[in-house]
Amino acid sequence: MIRPATPDDAAAIVAVERAAFGPDVAWSAGLVDLELIAPGRVVVAAEQDDAMVGFASAAVIADVADLTRIAVRPHARRTGVARALLNALLEQAAERGAERMMLEVADTNEPALGFYAASGFSEVARRHDYYGRGVDAVVMELAPIPGHDTLVS
Ligand SMILES: CC(C)(COP(=O)(O)OP(=O)(O)OC[C@H]1O[C@@H](n2cnc3c(N)ncnc32)[C@H](O)[C@@H]1OP(=O)(O)O)[C@@H](O)C(=O)NCCC(=O)NCCS
Fold first, then answer.
1. Where in the chain are the domains?
2. Confidence of residue 137 (pLDDT cuts 50, 70, 90)
3. 9: CA distance to ligand 1 center in Å?
4. How many A from CA of 114 to the centre of ligand 1?
5. Measuring CA to CA, how many Å separate 96 from each of 36, 60, 65, 92, 121?
6. Superfamily the domain 2-146 falls into
7. pLDDT digits over 60-105, tens only?
8. Alpha-carbon distance 29 to 78, whole Å?
9. pLDDT of 148
């Protein structure tokens, strides 16, 4: 089940972050709290058997939604959870006026690159050494945001 996240979800989101990224890269509790209350943010959560297995967030500013995070617990991957999260995020972002979604991803993150390509994102730029020496950021865009009837399911 996909649903909007609320400030009460902060601890569960931190746990998903740690499971998905490890303790060094995971967002801190403070960052998650900010993400849940910052203006223009859209945050959605995926639940299975009353437990959160993934979440996704975006910052909507004018016509652009920036995908700030998408993460799924390892045991729940490759079952369509991220696809469902992204569809919910796109729908909510479009309702707030977004016409395209943008993101940055490390060029070493093959699962994420595969997921974004499968979701219709295209590379529009590269930021060299953005994530440290030898690790570029790939800037990707999905434009226009697909209509409700045409979202990949
Ligand atoms: C990237 C991530 C969110 C994908 O989540 P997921 O729930 O496994 O993705 P889905 O099951 O919805 O996959 C949808 C499609 O994306 C593509 N895809 C997903 N994972 C992939 C992988 N590891 N390699 C290649 N393609 C992949 C496939 O086309 C897949 O469809 P299929 O399973 O029918 O082949 C997940 O691997 C993850 O949490 N990674 C760690 C966190 C991260 O790096 N987030 C992105 C940066 S913020």
1. 2-146
2. very high
3. 22
4. 7
5. 16, 7, 9, 6, 20
6. Gcn5-related N-acetyltransferase (GNAT) (3.40.630.30)
7. 999 999 999 999 999 999 999 999 999 999 999 999 999 999 999 9
8. 27
9. 56
